[in-house]
Amino acid sequence: MEAAAAGRDMFEEIVMAEERFHGEGYQEGYADGSHVGVVEGRRYGSLLGAKIGSEIGFYLGFALTWQCLFQKCTDEKNNKKRRALDYLIRMIQKFPYEDPTYDKLQEDLEKIRGKFKQARKQSYRRLNGSRKRSRVL
User: Fold this and answer.
1) Which helix (H) or strand (E) holds 114?
2) How big is the chain by its Cα radius of gyration, in Å?
3) pLDDT (mean) for 29-33
4) What is the pLDDT of residue 15?
5) What is the 3-state secondary structure (H, E, C) of 26-87?
């Protein structure tokens, strides 16, 4: 009777080996995939964060430069341009650099881009002295 039970156990091990190996392979693959996914996600996040930081830095440099150029201009037309630049600078300073989980990150970035386009258009009108569209930026 023991020989028959031992034969059944051996047969059961052979039959169940495929299921066991499948389960073990799945677990190993899942663990490896999770690790690779975290590494790839971190790399992509760093790259995207650097691009956004570079873009925001460009906007801030633009705004600060033009703000210096408009300091001596006191007429109403230039005052409006200066206010637009001041608002752009405030938006950039409030931008949440340290919080990648900020819900409105893309929305705020789009607002900054829009304000930059407005400020750029107004600033280059002064440079060109006309309302023609500039091809500088």
Assistant:
1) helix 105-128
2) 31
3) 87
4) 73
5) HHHHHHHHHHHHHHHHHHHHHHHHHHHHHHHHHHHHHHHHHHHHHCCCCCHHHHHHHHHHHH
